[in-house]
Inverse folding.
């Protein structure tokens, strides 16, 4: 089991507030690691703990959810004159 030392840069990743992305510093590691935590966790107990502690504001505010912009299709280059294949 990993031991949470600190959580930073928390942001809601969906409108329902069931997923948080953040960076977690575990005692067992020397650096912050990117982390996604769901409200119901997964097979690892620390996933639910990260969600609960981050969403409670223990390590600061969770930034609001911002929808991703819709991708725009690439534009095709315009051609003039005859084309040779």
């Amino acid at each position: 089991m990993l031991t949470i030392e600190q959580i930073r840069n928390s942001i809601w990743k969906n409108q329902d507030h069931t997923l948080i992305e953040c960076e977690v510093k575990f005692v067992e590691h020397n650096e912050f690691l990117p982390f996604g935590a769901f409200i119901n966790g997964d097979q690892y107990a620390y996933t639910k703990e990260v969600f609960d502690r981050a969403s409670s504001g223990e390590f600061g505010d969770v930034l609001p959810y911002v929808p991703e912009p819709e991708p725009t299709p690439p534009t095709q280059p315009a051609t003039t004159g005859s084309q040779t294949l």
Notes: DSSP finds one helix and three strands in the chain. Residues 45-55 form the longest helix (11 residues). Strands lie at 4-12, 19-26, 32-38.
